[in-house]
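Quick one, T. Sequence first:
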Amino acid sequence: TMERTVNNYGKGDTASDIAVDRIQNLLQCCGYNGPTDYQIITQFKLPSSCCADMIPNDACNTATAYKTGCKAQIEHFIASQSTIVIITVCAVVILEIVTMLAACY
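Structure tokens:
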């Protein structure tokens, strides 16, 4: 899960770390529930993907990090896309019904 991946951030699994960084950059979020998720793991320095405009070699911290956790951002993203998914599914179902009716004649 995302929560476990965040908890294991920086512990040697580079693929997971890259995935977390990309999600945090894309959704502009930090940690699973928020930036405090990293305090146990990394003390005070957060991953640079938690901050929007980082100067190279500058430490991202809770004062400069995104305040929203990725869980909330992922839920918001899925909810915002649900209308598009529902419309697409309905269109495909209607197309299938029309195709089946046309095949009967």
